[in-house]
Amino acid sequence: MTALHPFVIQGDICYSTSPQTVETVENGYLVCEEGRCAGVFRDLPQSCRDLPQIDCVGQLVVPGLVDLHVHAPQYAFRGLGMDLELLEWLNTHTFPEESKYGDADYADQAYRRFVRDVAQGPNTRACIFGTIHTEATIHLMDLLEEAGLCTMVGKVNMDRNSPDSLRETDAQASAAATADWLRRIEGRYAHTAPILTPRFIPSCTDELMEELHRLQSRLHLPVQSHLSENQGEIAWVKELCPQARHYGDAYHRFGLFGGEGCPTIMAHCVYSDGDELSLMKEQQVFVAHCPASNTNLSSGIAPVRRFLNEGIPVGLGSDVAGGTHTSIFRAMADAIQVSKLRWRLVDASLPPLTAAEAFYLGTAGGGAFFGQVGAFAPGWEFDAIVIDDSRYTPAGGLSLMDRLERSIYLCDERDLRHKFVQGRQLF
Ligand code: GUN
Ligand code: FE
């Protein structure tokens, strides 16, 4: 997995060239050199004829999918408590489950299952929440590194409004544990990186946010959290932070809301509008749109078309266990479906997402958080999956775009033939 030899994949190649356009090359050649894409060709250039070739003729070759928001410790209880709304679901199921990750054996078993299943699926990249526990989070990072995935992982910070078993003593203890975690993983990984993870405003005191801001300024780490997911949550944030102009401002006041040197992902943004949306645009805060979670927890439907129109960066998140499935193909289909309901029932001025747009969100849209990732442009990092769609699409008759659309709805692990992350072949 270490030597990055050049190679060629021959197959039916699809990738986004803009949010609205998918480039399709039937029976083409995709060249990988030193972990990066060297180009997509209709005819193989002379200079590449001696490279090893992987024959995927008749199969779809697409960029690896990107999960911008997932909770690894919640994988073990997915599909439970789906009759509850966010705050009740957190207290009833999520916090008790996450408390168990202080136990190394429990964490080992649960995290092995999570990593194995993600590694076998179509996602190549993910931004992942762990828990407050340092040992378990480092173990999760070790497992992800070993699996070959490219991820950002956060030890979660929480110092208020949660049970004793899932709350750090105070802001200083939480910040010290985070600094200790960062010291212990320094230089340890090639493709697993830390990301600062204040859980959400209700879980973090002002003092903790100040401490995290100090760490962020010193180490220039990216940040991930939750924003404007649920009406009850938003009302609570207003009470907790009366000085903040809006929920986003509660992060921004502490310098933890995007901008130069502070790449930030906010999950959900179902109710972001007005000044909050303007600030997100100004600060280029990434939205992780999590349609399954927003449906399961009755949170609402985020205005993704608006984010796209306004130039706010946006990708997709599974948000397991608010969502039940890790596959970002599933999130693409969910995103299209909820956008139709929003268009029909909420706002006729925002047309539903197309298959091309959902594919963009789940590849290049989220990939942008990692750099040049999520499309087969020359020089971009080489993440690819190969799909044998013959189980659901008989040979002949359909365009590549039609086959891609069907794969969004129908592809699962059974159909994956190969997976590459940064040029490394996982299978
Ligand atoms: N807000 C704070 N924590 C969580 C979480 O674990 N899941 C979701 N969906 N929202 C949150
Ligand atoms: Fe979440």
Please give a structural write-up:
This protein starts with 6 loop residues before the first strand and ends with a strand. With 427 residues, the protein is α/β, with parallel strands linked by helices. The longest helix is centred in the C-terminal third of the chain and has 18 residues, at 328-345. It folds into two domains: 7-64 and 375-425, Urease, subunit C, domain 1 (Roll); 65-370, Alpha-Beta Barrel (TIM Barrel). A hairpin with a 5-residue loop joins strand 1 (7-16) and strand 2 (22-33). Helices cover 36% and strands 22% of the residues. The chain has a seven-stranded mixed beta sheet. Fe (iii) ion is lined by residues 69, 71, 226, 267, 319, 322.
CATH architecture of the largest domain: Alpha-Beta Barrel
Averaged pLDDT = 98
Report the structural category: alpha/beta
CATH fold field value of the largest domain: TIM Barrel
Domain unit count: 2
Number of helices: 13
* N→C terminal distance: 11 Å
Order of helices and strands: EEEEEHHEHEEHEEHEHHEHEHHEHHEHEE
Major sheet size, sense and barrel closure: 7 strands, mixed
